Each structure stands twice: as C-alpha cells, then as structure tokens.
Amino acid sequence: MASGNSAIRGSRVGAGPMGEQDRGFHADRVAVSYWDAQGNETVRYFAASLPDEEIPEVIDSPSTGLPAGRDRENPPSVSKLEPYKTHLAYVKERRTEDEAAALLDDALTQLRARRGQAPKD
Question: What are the start and end residues of every segment in region (Disordered) (predicted)?
Fold first, then answer.
C-alpha cells in the first residue's frame, strides 16, 4: 500500500464545491474566424453575450504574426514597415563618398560659424 499521499482515493486534486459550469467552461460561446494575408485561418471564441461591437475586427495571427481580419476575401495587407533593420539594410542606406564629404564640410562650416571662426581653406 502506498503512503504519503493525503488525497482521498478517487478524488480529483483541486476539486471543490465550485464545478466547471460555475467557472465558465460551459458558458455559451460564439466562434469567430480570422484570416491573414497568407490565407491562414484562426478561430477565436467569445462569450455569446458579448456585443458584436466588442469583438475585435483585427487580431495578430498566431501562426504568422501578420494582422488577420474577419473578411476572408479581403484580409488585412502585410505591413510595409520592417520591424527591425538588418545589416544589409543599413549598408544600402550608406551615402557615397562625395555625399559624405559634402555633409562633413557643411557640418564643419556650421560649427565654425557658431564659434565665430573663419573657415580655413
């Protein structure tokens, strides 16, 4: 015979006077489908008593992270903004040597003008 367990045989751990129906597991629910730009469907469940205005029109798709809407034919478009820039994106934005020299000359001219010094050529 095993000992050291205080649970009564056949009882569930955590079971008490409040049953599942009191916790809302059996509450009336309505299923709402959302689709993202790649055609993935996500189903979310909301309480049936919730007004339609409080059910969100757009959510983030858990499978792709893209926005998902309730209209299957016209899902939200993919965002054009990059969440972060890669090293190559920064390399593409680098200026040419001539542009960099012109910017440096302009900055030095402005700095010397603030200090009251004449530019040296």
Answer: 1-21, 56-81
